[in-house]
Amino acid sequence: MSTGVVSISYQTLVSLPSSLETCIEEAFGSHPQALGIILVKDLPPVYPIYRERLLKLAYNFAHLDEDVREKYVDPGSIYSYGWSHGKEIMNGRPDTLKGSYYANPIVDVPDVNPAVKAAYRPIYGDNVWPDKNETSIEGFEEAFKNLGRFVFDVGCQLAGACQPFVSKYLTDASLSVPELISPQAAKARLLHYFPPSENSPTTEDEPIDSWCGFHKDHSLLTGLCSAIFLREEAGMDPTTVPPPSPTSGLYIRTRGGDLTKVSIPPDCLAFQTGEALELVTAGKLRATPHCVRVGQTQGGANISRETFALFMQPDTHQRISESDTFGSFSKKVLEEHYEEARVI
């Protein structure tokens, strides 16, 4: 099943956010058809330039020699900064289907108490950037920050527009969604989904979450770019191609439990709700369950998927439920997905 996603204009978001409450409720509310995701369209013309530049660099980074990629791995942060591949546990096993590059695009060195920083390195670690002259990924840091800061700024505008709607459900009336979002705790994830193995092309009966298992983000809001698909050509630059199958892409479960394929147009940003928002509203505004499907492919298709997500989060001391701060909740999430987190 595929259904339309609520969309709002960036111009309206900036100039008249109070007029968007009905649209936001339709997208993020608790009625059965709500998807928990909203599109922002009519973005400034710089956005598609930022998006294409960084997503193609995701492909280039994933194709660096392994010893080069390993220079930018940060085990001390539980692989929450720099390059990560095969460390995250999804569907009960190490996830080798995608590689990720993590960084805070807003601040390189979070300005927090040293003891707090040491206790929460996966949230307040220092960024790890590739050498500026690393072949084939020149400009990586600048491109990552350009896109990340753009998405963060739009997300902050959206958070402000959400406040009149969300305030009706907050367990603590003194809280404000824009004020909950901390630049110090922002985290972006640049993703490269490796092509399916040539020896085991996907078939019609593949699992719906064959490229990325069903999960919820633990952020307040997550900003998402439309993915690009690249075909690898021997000895040539990759070619931008359509998805490998009409069934390829992002899937969401509605509040009513229906499975829905969601398409994000290339010139739009999407924002979806995370578990921190669910917790600060005592479950009244639920996080969005989602996954990614490869779709049926022919052997030798050799098509990868590149995308970018920005997690907008509170600081670790922020209480988000009776039993948890965001810091304690995040540790529980990490323990579910990383063996290394269970021993710190």
Short description, anyone?
By secondary structure, the chain is an alpha+beta fold. It has helices at 10-15, 21-28, 46-62, 66-69, 114-119, 121-124, 140-166, 177-180, 275-280, 326-337; strands at residues 7-9, 37-41, 82-85, 89-90, 93-94, 98-103, 187-193, 212-215, 221-225, 228-231, 239-241, 249-253, 259-262, 269-273, 290-293, 303-312. Strand 4 (89-90) and strand 5 form a beta hairpin.
Our count of helices gives 10
Radius of gyration (CA) equals: 19 Å
Low-confidence stretches: none
Q: How many E-type strands?
A: 16
Main β-sheet: number of strands, strand sense, barrel status? Answer: 10 strands, mixed
Global mean pLDDT:
89
* General shape: globular
Euclidean distance between termini CA atoms:
43 Å
What share of residues is helical? Answer: 25-40%
Query: What class would the helix/strand composition place it in?
Result: alpha+beta
Fraction in beta strands: 15-25%
Order of helices and strands: EHHEHHEEEEHHHHEEEEEEEEHEEH
